[in-house]
Amino acid sequence: MGTIELLMQGFAVALSPESIMFALIGAILGTLIGALPGLGPANGVAILIPLAFSLGLSPTSSLILLTSVYAGAMYGGRISSILLNIPGDEPAMMTCLDGYPMAVKGKAAEALATSAIASFIGSFIATIGLVILAPILAKFALKFGPAEYFALFALAFATLGGITGKNQFKTLIAAALGLMIATVGIDISSGVQRYTYDSLHLFEGIDFLIAIVGLFAISELFFFLEQHAGDGLKQVALNKLKLTAKDILFVLPASLRGALLGFVSGVLPGAGASLGSFVSYTLEKKVSDTGEFGKGDPRGVAAPEAGNNGAASGALVPMLTLGVPGSGTTAVLLAMLISLNVNPGPMLFQQSPDLVWGVIAALFVGNLVLLLLNIPMVGVFVKLLSIPPKYLMPIVTLIASVGIFSITGSAIDLYFMVGFGIMGYVLRKVEIPLVPVILGMLLGPEMEKNLRHALVLSDGDWTVLWSSGLSIGLWVVALAGLILPMVFGKILRTKMKRSKDGLTD
Amino acid sequence: MRITDRVFGVLLLILAVTYGYEATKFPIPFGGQESVGPETFPILLSIILAIGSIYMIVKPDEDAKWPAVSMLIELGIVCLVLVLFAFGLEYVGFVLSATPAVAFLCWRMGATPGKSLLTGAITSVVIYVLFTRVLELALPSGILGL
């Protein structure tokens, strides 16, 4: 069957009334989560997984729900960038540059609408790219043996810090910690107990959902408490929207360029959404600056937003076809797939095409829903932004705890959640990134399985890991991913910082 | 001073060594020794962690800003409250354990005691009703027996 037919079948799934309802709920929840201070997209999806899980939704429904949440959170994140000048996550930083000045000039509604349109274009184009590229990559990945997979997982960790990563050794430490947590429990292939210390609760290992909620949500609570940030921040008021077709045409080229650049950097290992929005913005500034950039040029909002969303959808390509996520939020999406018993990878496209194409179609539908939802309803979301965190964070913590409690109905999981919260707080203080820890927990079992397969086949000869041309190539990219940031990371980060500082002067 | 990274580097190094040592003590799996066993991957990880932690000790980054001792104690109390909430769930039920926990968190984040208590009570009851009646998830009702 050709891609188009499969996609059409996907649309048949995604356009059923039930799916549209879940897409709508997901889009609203996602936008809220993205807009709320202190909750990033990764956080929000993480809190919702156990809930979707314990509600007993079908895999397709939960996937549609959570992909819409993912897409919605990307939309929501820009609301705080534009109105508060605070990026929800790192890729949203470039949106602040022109978005906030626009808001200060009394054009907040226009800035939000522009970014909504640009986000839509970014996601739309990148999803088309996903449709074209994913099956090709999946077919190619069928050539991978255990040694290649092991190299691929190593590559995922090496490039996770991204080209803007600070300290590569800390990424390494984080990955090792995550992989170590994954080894706790009964070893699948030999039945030996590892690090269980005869505690029955540890026999099945530690659920990564508990770790995700603890590391992200609970540690965030600690940071809010420490910084006394309970009162929230002053935001720019919203004006009445005056957007004409001419305004949209004005930002269209910038959005298209941003979308393409974003998609490419989303697909590439290690580049990620931060680089996508950064490159889109700088290129747009080079191409069309007339002295207005940084002072509230709508094109300066459109380009990074399109880039950011393009990268978010582009990052799904390696995630779905290889099972290797490229960013924090896609790592959480991978967690969602694994907890639904769906194993991403090349086989996924052959074994459950209905699911894959249903999700891809859901991305199209979800983005359209978001665009239609966002322009008229942005006022409601802005209202919710003004709820002070001192009420919001405790409530979010409670909901997160309920989700964790409902997985097994045991209080021990909640103790673990608090433990992971403390660990997350300490790791963030020491500037050890959290995403590799999560990724380690997710990929650990698969990585070990592939290592053992490769070594058993070669009778213990370690050189099998780098004996094929493909695996050597993967190792080279992995090494480059570790070493390049040490050289270029500093330069890029100062550049990003400078363009941000230039604004406040 | 770059003491934070050094201290944590040492702690992580201890962890790496203990973890690797424990791996060598795994019982031999049923069916005899093979070229790769349950200990191979953990030993590899302990080496990677050791390399990373030694780097942290040798080339530490700038120190992070740690909060004052009083704040650390407060965060400790918050952890205790969260643990008590989890403990109380099974004994006094969801509403009675969630109300004081949420109220305490709101209060510590800067809300007035009255408003905190109100937020705690309302959210606990709303979430309880929402989850048990609408979404049909079992939350312990406890001694209230609703």
Key attributes of the depicted protein:
heterodimer, A: 505 residues, mainly alpha, 19 helices, 2 strands, globular, B: 146 residues, 2 domains, 5 helices, 0% strand, flat
Q: Care to describe what's here?
A:
- The complex is a heterodimer of chains A (505) and B (146).
- Chain A has one domain.
- The model of chain A has no long low-confidence stretch (mean pLDDT 81).
- Chain A has helices spanning 3-14, 17-35, 41-54, 59-84, 93-141, 146-160, 168-183, 208-227, 245-267, 272-288, 298-314, 316-322, 328-339, 346-351, 353-385, 389-408, 411-429, 435-457, 469-504, and strands at 185-186, 193-194.
- Chain A has a two-stranded antiparallel ribbon.
- By secondary structure, chain A is mainly alpha-helical.
- Chain B has helices spanning 3-24, 40-58, 69-92, 94-108, 113-134.
- In chain B, helix 1 (3-24) packs antiparallel against helix 2 (40-58).
- Chain B is flat, with a radius of gyration of 24 Å.
- Chains A and B meet through helix 7, helix 8, helix 16, helix 17 and helix 18 of A and helix 1, helix 2, helix 3, helix 4 and helix 5 of B.
- Chain A: Pfam families: TctA.
- The span between the termini of chain A is 58 Å
Query: Helix count of chain B, per DSSP?
Result: 5
Q: Return the domain count of chain A.
A: 1
Query: How widely separated are the two ends of chain B?
Result: 57 Å
In DSSP terms, counting alpha (H) and pi (I) runs of 4 or more, how many helices of chain A?
19
Pfam families (chain A): TctA
Domain DUF112 (chain A): 20-439
Transmembrane segments (chain A): 20-39, 45-71, 111-137, 149-165, 172-193, 205-225, 248-268, 322-343, 355-375, 395-418, 425-444, 464-488
Protein name (chain A): Tripartite tricarboxylate transporter permease
